[in-house]
Amino acid sequence: MNAPVPSHAPSPRLQRFGRRGLQTIAIGVAVALCLSLMPGQRLLPSLAYSVCIALGCWLFIDCGRMLAAHWVHRQASPEIRRARGEWPGWGWMAAVLPLGTLAGYVVGYEIAARLFDAAEPHALGFDLRSFASILILSMIPGVAATYYFYSRARLAASHAKAEQAERMAAEQRLKLLAAQLEPHMLFNTLANLRALIGIDPPRAQAMLDRLILFLRATLDASRGSTHALASEFARLADYLELMQIRMGGRLQTRLTLPDHLAARQVPALLLQPLVENAIKHGLEPQVRGGRIDVSAGSECGQLVLRVRDTGTGLAAVASGQGTGFGVEQVRERLEALYGPAASLDLAPAPDADGGMLATLRMPL
Q: 290-299 and 343-348: which strand pairing?
């Protein structure tokens, strides 16, 4: 469990503001050390004037930039404010930079002069050429900082646009995958129903009734991109009952869902392709049939879903029969929703009953 953040902890914006202040002090110290090497210059006065002027310029420029950015983006969307909230644009900065430098230089110089009780002329008392030279030198760090924020704003805006495009692509991909999944499941079920009509009409009628109920419940579930894990297990129970009508005693099932995971949200119809594969390619080829176990659990902060069958195991995969559409469909949905934080693994079942174990992991 993560430790709670203290209520008095500074905000990220305040932390960045403080870091910029410390960097400005470091620049002032570096300038003072260089000036102290010149003839007739003393370290302590040079340090006071350099640090005070640097802090004054930084404070006026930084505060002016943030106020201008707040004004420019006051009616923008939250995404734009987050992406470009610290950059008002070059037009505003063309005014903020010289005015902030002038105000910071005058205030910083006067503060340093008062600290040393100096008798020198005040900040505006130099001749115009000297004052202009010092002002231009004072603007150099401001120009560098301004370019830094401009580059950072452009990068943040590009990153925000890329994230938005990625989300839209993922949503479209999920819709396409869902559109592929539902007909695939329906065609498989209708093929099973057609085979049963010629063998056992009463069971075929019971299967058709169950199919109608299953499709109604599936339609409700497919209207949203996610639903509770309890709903996912309920749809699996409906589907397995449908298959038991056809296979009879050849199919045994067991569903295990802990109460504390029942409300967890998962992509709709995520496990059904794995269960279909287990029946079609694992259990149906065996005369004796077999068992399907579907379970949910949590490990190391992840939701772990397992579909295990006692069928033919990985032989069907090795021979290139089946599991292609179902497994790839599940993997692509996980990739679109969770990226590398989710996975689907197929492996031989770890006990003497044999078969295959599909393990699906996703963030809780």
A: unpaired
Spatial distance between the Cα atoms of 311 and 291, rounded to a whole number of angstroms: 8
Q: pTM for this structure?
A: 0.51
Tokens standing for residue 341: 């934080």
Tell me: do 249 and 102 sit in the same domain: no
At 175-209, the pLDDT tens digits run: 555 555 556 567 767 877 787 788 888 888 887 88
The rounded distance, in Å, linking the Cα atoms of 266 and 221 is: 11
Task: Judge residue 104's burial from the number of C-beta atoms within 10 Å of its C-beta, 0-12 exposed, 13-18 middle, 19 or more buried.
Answer: buried
Distance linking the first and last C-alpha atoms of the chain: 13
For the segment 33-86, what is each residue's pLDDT rounded down to a tens digit?
Answer: 776 777 767 777 778 877 888 888 878 888 888 888 888 877 766 655 655 556
- The CA–CA distances, whole Å, from 158 to 16, 72, 75, 164, 167 equal 21, 19, 20, 10, 14
What is the number of alpha carbons within 13 Å of residue 362 lying toward its C-beta?
22
Distance CA 350, CA 1 (A): 32
Count of domains forming the chain: 2
What is the domain-level CATH number for residue 274? 3.30.565.10
